[in-house]
Amino acid sequence: MSPEPLGILAGGGDVPLQVAQAAQTAGRPVHVVALDGWADQVWNGFSLIRERPGAAGRILGHLRAQGVRQIVMTGRAQRPSILSLRPDATAARMLARIGRAYFTGDDGLLRAVARALEAEGFEIVAAQDVLRDILPPAGLLTRASPDATARADIMRAILVVRALGAVDVGQGAVVQQGLVLGVEAIEGTDALLARCAGLKREGPGGVLVKLVKPGQDRRLDLPTVGPETIRGAVAAGLAGIAIEAGGTILVDRARTVAAADAAGLFLLALHPETFNETETTP
C-alpha cells in the first residue's frame, strides 16, 4: 500500500517547510497550500498551490483531488477580518460552523477551524507528529545558564503567561528584574521583542518565557522559538529564553542553539509546574 498523502496549510516561517521535508523524506506525497499573505517559503520540489485564505472551496477541492485526508495546519498567520477574508461559499459554510469562536482567542478559533475541517472529512495532524524531535525535553540547551536574577524573572513570567493563556490571549512575556516589559498578544513574539527593546532597564537583562496555554489543543499553534527569536532577544538586551519542555517547537535546533551560544544567551526548556527559582537544574 502506498503512503497516505499529507496536506499542509502553510503560514509563514520555517516550520511548514520542515514538516513538508520530513514527510517527503518518510516517503509521503506532500501537497502544500501556501496561504497568500502568510506563506513566505520557497517550495521547490513540492506539489503546491497558492490561495487566499477565504478560498476554502478551491483549497479543499484541490486537497480532495489529490487524495489528501490528513492535514497539518502550521506556520505564522495573523487573523484577517471577515471583510478582508472574502469567504467563498465553502468558507461561508465553515464560518457558520465556527460562529462566535472567530472572535475569541487564537486557540478557541483554531479549535473551531479544526472542527470545521473535520466536518469536511479531514483529519488534523500535529506538526510534531511529523517532526518527531522538534519539541525539546527539559534541560539547558546552551552553554550560558540563568543566574538567580534570571530565574526569579522566569518564575514571574511563568505566572504572567499562565494568566494570559487562561484567557486565550498569548503565549509569551518578557520580564526584567521583576518588571513585566511586555506580553504577547496578536502581534506575535518578534513584534513583542522589538517593542521590549525600547523598554529595557539598566542592569541584568530580562527573560522571554513561552508556554503552552492551559488546555490548549496541542495539534495547533504551539509556541515556537527559532533563530529569529534569538536575534530579537539579542536586540532586546535579554539574558535568555525559557520555553516549555515538550510543548514548544524549536525551529532548526542546531542553528538556534548556536546563535544563542554566540550571543551568550541561555535557552532553557522547563516544566512550568515544577520550576523552582532556587534550583540549578530545570
Automatic annotation (TrEMBL):
Keyword list, A-Z: Hydrolase
Transmembrane domains' residue ranges: none
InterPro entries membership: LpxI, LpxI_C, LpxI_C_sf, LpxI_N
Gene Ontology MF: a single term: hydrolase activity
Segments forming domain LpxI N-terminal: 6-133
Domain LpxI C-terminal: 137-267
Domain of life: Bacteria
EC number per UniProt: 3.6.1.54
Signal peptide start-end: none
Protein name, per record: UDP-2,3-diacylglucosamine diphosphatase LpxI
Protein species of origin: Roseicella aerolata
